[in-house]
Design brief:
Shape of chain A: globular
CATH architecture of the largest domain in chain B: 3-Layer(aba) Sandwich
Order of helices and strands of chain B: EEEEEEHEEHEHEEHEHEEHEE
CATH topology of chain A: TIM Barrel
Helix content of chain B: 10-25%
CATH superfamily of chain A: Aldolase class I
Strand content of chain A: 15-25%
Order of helices and strands of chain A: EEEHEEEHEHEHHEHEEEEEHEHEHH
Number of domains of chain A: 1
Radius of gyration of chain A: 18 Å
Structural class of chain A: alpha/beta
Largest sheet of chain A: 8 strands, parallel, barrel
Distance between the termini of chain B: 34 Å
CATH architecture of chain A: Alpha-Beta Barrel
Strand order of the largest sheet of chain B: 11-10-9-8-12-13-14
Helix content of chain A: 25-40%
Strand order of the largest sheet of chain A: 3-4-7-8-9-10-15-16
Largest sheet of chain B: 7 strands, mixed
Number of domains of chain B: 3
Shape of chain B: globular
CATH class of the largest domain in chain B: Alpha Beta
Bound molecules: flavin-adenine dinucleotide, flavin mononucleotide, FE2/S2 (inorganic) cluster
Number of helices of chain A: 10
Number of strands of chain B: 16
Number of helices of chain B: 6
Distance between the termini of chain A: 30 Å
CATH topology of the largest domain in chain B: Rossmann fold
Number of strands of chain A: 16
Oligomer: heterodimer
Structural class of chain B: alpha/beta
Chain lengths: 313, 266
């Protein structure tokens, strides 16, 4: 049975990939995740300058999910080389996706150019963080035409595969994916957090997050994430890193059937800690055995009607 | 779920010139060494160890160390509210230990008090070795005495107890202990002190547990802000309590930490 995923020419030993912003501040932490079963990892989104992000409280869980307003904290791309080198030293076998961010297209291109020189296998363009809107305005992925421009600009500065990370907060995510594909994206990561949302403490009579609002993720957004992956699968030919509320093997299978080739894993860690990667992979293996499937790629898009052919898109 | 619980301050103790202890009437059910994320609305949320703890109340000893802690010292009075997430993290293991030697300094003392309280309840022998810059800064002598533990102190200026480091007191004390008993050293305080304590334990072939401190955001193991090189363990989840031996395997122990952005700070 084959659980190995060839994604844009990169070999992932299983379909689980740590999602950006989860346990991705240091190379050693990323490597700790692969040692516990993650097939690959995504680094925390980096911008040009060092950023402290928003003041705590920045991350909360509520019944059903997670809300965060970390606010893209990071040491800045120029300072972060040692973390990628540390990851490579500790986890030479598992792919790493470098997440790229910026206030505008110029900054994104600048960060991508530096990321391109680092030992990463693929670049993920974070066009979709909803908790920095006060500072950066509406995310790029909310507009198909700006998504097109930004993807095109980055395409010119790297030969590494690019995946564009999309926002669920749009009327037609398939259209945004099409604009990314047409301008050189090799893959789509969907979705980033929803919202923004808010949680108020009734005793304090205040929003709990110091930023007041934050991006919502976890099981609560899974049906929306599944629909987004479904729409994207029917709009473009490039493969998808399906992300959003995948906390167990059943969720993972659902996402693959909607059209995900890889699975972005984040909020699963809240519920199952680092054994979530093995739990998900084991469940997929068991399901394939029961159903008589031999290759994991057979699961991808299985929920779409017979005769639906992406190659005819 | 990790939404905060909100409690009113029942009383406040000024325990040293820069540390106030806030008392809350709630059964927090924490294991010894665990911490809380303490929320001051509109400012910040910061990790704090749990000190004195009974079924009726718990104490949090807060040193004035910067923006948020200063704002708590200035603004929070009896009857005011603070938010708490947790308890989080690993705890001290003392099940099979006969004699606990607790080495604390500064705001590392509250978890040592909690541990001494739990261990004396079980009838175990406890020695507390506390260091401070001067006699004024020594913490919780009344509560340690109430527990009936052996309390040894050192001050940098010699105003009380041994004139020098508490690690000197530890070495001196180890030469006198009964090695036929199961002895374990516990420590919480400045990291350079904990490195020294872990090394002393290693040299004396004694078990040791340290309580580490790193910048925290989530507190429950998902954001990766508090991880240590090279194992990548999360101090909020796989710590804050780890064995001294394991701590010494980490090249960053006593050498560097990462701040709010994730950048390395010496
Ligand atoms: C597990 C744990 C237990 C702790 N227990 C106690 C205790 O019982 N009593 C006590 O007085 N202090 C304790 N601290 C330290 C306390 O969290 C810091 O002193 C406090 O966060 C300072 O916040 P500030 O805004 O006042 O300071 P700032 O002005 O923000 O900075 C002062 C210092 O505090 C550190 N700090 C700030 N925010 C955080 C954060 N979110 N996480 C970790 N460090 C931070 C900074 O890195 C800096 O070194 C503990 C820390 C940890 C990690
Ligand atoms: C604390 C936290 C931080 C995040 N940081 C980033 C980030 O820096 N870049 C990014 O592209 N996505 C970030 N995300 C979004 C996740 O990568 C993911 O797309 C989203 O949370 C949905 O997956 P989940 O339901 O499994 O959490 C973050 C999410 C959380 C909860
Ligand atoms: S504080 Fe988030 S992982 Fe430790």
């Amino acid at each position: 049975m084959n659980l190995n995923v060839n994604f844009c020419g990169i070999q992932f030993p299983n379909p689980t990939v740590l999602a950006s912003g989860y346990l991705g501040v240091t190379g050693a932490s990323l490597a700790n995740c692969t040692s516990k079963g993650a097939g690959g990892v995504t680094s925390k989104t980096l911008l040009m300058k060092e950023r402290t992000g928003h003041a705590n409280p920045t991350i909360l869980t509520f019944p059903g999910g997670v809300i965060n307003a970390v606010g893209l904290s990071g040491e800045g791309i120029g300072n972060a080389k040692h973390e990628f080198e540390k990851y490579r030293e500790l986890a030479p076998e598992n792919p790493i996706i470098g997440s790229v961010g910026g206030h505008d297209i110029d900054e994104i291109v600048e960060v991508a150019q530096i990321m391109d020189e680092y030992p990463v296998d693929m670049l993920e363009l974070n066009f979709s963080c909803p908790n920095v809107e006060g500072e950066m305005g509406k995310p790029i992925a909310c507009d198909p035409l700006i998504t097109a421009q930004a993807t095109k600009a980055v395409r010119q500065v790297t030969k590494k595969p690019i995946t564009v990370k999309l926002s669920p907060n749009v009327p037609d995510i398939g259209l945004v994916a099409k604009h990314a594909e047409a301008n050189g994206a090799d893959a789509i990561t969907a979705v980033n957090t929803m919202g923004p949302g808010m949680v108020i403490d009734i005793q304090m009579r205040r929003p709990i997050l110091t930023n007041k609002v934050g991006g919502v993720s976890g099981h609560a957004i899974k049906p929306i994430a599944v629909r987004c992956v479904w729409d994207i699968y029917r709009s473009v030919k490039i493969p998808i890193i399906a992300t959003g509320g995948v906390i167990n093997g059943r969720d993972a299978l659902e996402m693959m059937m909607a059209g995900g080739s890889l699975l972005g894993i984040g909020s699963a860690i809240v519920y199952h800690d680092l054994k979530c990667f093995d739990m998900i992979t084991d469940k997929i293996r068991a399901f394939m055995e029961e159903e008589g499937l031999n290759d994991i790629s057979e699961l991808v898009g299985l929920a779409h009607e017979e005769g639906f052919d992406r190659d005819k898109l | 779920m990790s939404l905060p619980l909100v409690f009113k301050v029942d009383s406040i103790r000024q325990d040293s010139p820069n540390l106030k202890t806030y008392v809350f009437k709630h059964n927090i059910r924490a294991k010894s060494g665990q911490f809380l994320m303490v929320w001051l609305p509109g400012h910040d949320e910061v990790p704090m160890s749990i000190g004195w703890q009974t079924k009726e109340e718990f104490h949090v000893g807060i040193a004035d160390a910067g923006d948020c802690t200063h704002a708590i010292h200035e603004n929070i009075k009896v009857g005011d509210k603070l938010g708490f997430r947790g308890p989080y993290g690993t705890s001290f293991d003392y099940k099979d230990v006969d004699h606990l030697i607790c080495v604390g300094g500064g705001y590392g003392t509250p978890p040592m008090l909690n541990l001494a309280q739990r261990a004396t309840e079980l009838g175990k022998k406890v020695t507390v070795i506390q260091g401070a810059r001067s006699a004024d800064y020594l913490l919780y002598e009344d509560l340690f005495n109430q527990l009936g533990v052996e309390l040894l102190v050192s001050t940098d200026d010699g105003s009380k107890g041994h004139h020098g480091y508490n690690t000197d007191v530890l070495e001196e004390h180890l030469s006198k202990i009964d090695r036929s008993e199961n002895v374990c050293i516990y420590t919480c305080g400045p990291e350079v002190m904990m490195v020294k304590v872990a090394q002393i334990a290693e040299k004396n072939e004694l078990k040791c547990q340290v309580s580490l401190e790193r910048y925290m955001k989530c507190g429950f193991g998902i954001c990766g802000q508090c991880c240590m090189d090279d194992s990548g363990i999360r101090i909020c989840k796989d710590g804050p309590i780890i064995s001294g031996e394991y701590a010494l395997e980490h090249p960053e122990f006593g050498k560097y930490t990462r701040g709010q952005s994730g950048k390395v700070e010496k």
